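Entry 12.
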Amino acid sequence: MAQSALPMTEVLIVADAWNGEPDADAVIQRAVAVAAEMADADTADAELAVMLTDDAGIRTLNSNWRGIDKPTNVLSFPALRPPTGVSSADEIPPMLGDIAIAYETARREADDEQKPFDHHLSHLAVHGFLHLVGYDHETDDEAEAMEALEIEILAQLGIPDPYADRERMD
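Predicted 3D structure (tokens):
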């Protein structure tokens, strides 16, 4: 199987809280690259942006775009696709969309679950990326398929199943 071109991922740090995580960019780049190789989606030469923000920033996004006035760990904003039949070959590369990750929530979750922060950050990046390429978890079947793919991708990254302890927490 020929390896396809990977999407170009730009990581933007917009909150000072991330200054203590100098490897965050590399962790996200690696997670997105593996997710792009394994997801059933054409992401060759596409672009996406990952914004590393804080709880205040993601709370604003969550409130403005989803009507939920509280912080969350990750949000994904898939880009609009050109209508079928419209060629963009001579235009700018296709945009997959944007992902926002909140430091305080991600850190708290990793600490509460006693997981290395880079493992949890990888999971959030993979989760956000899968939303950009059409995966969702609105129904049980969708959630099961998305989680199974997340587990596979994370295993490729050497990260244990993030859902393994779920039965004990239910």
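Annotation: The chain has a mean pLDDT of 89. The first strand starts at residue 8 and ends at 13.
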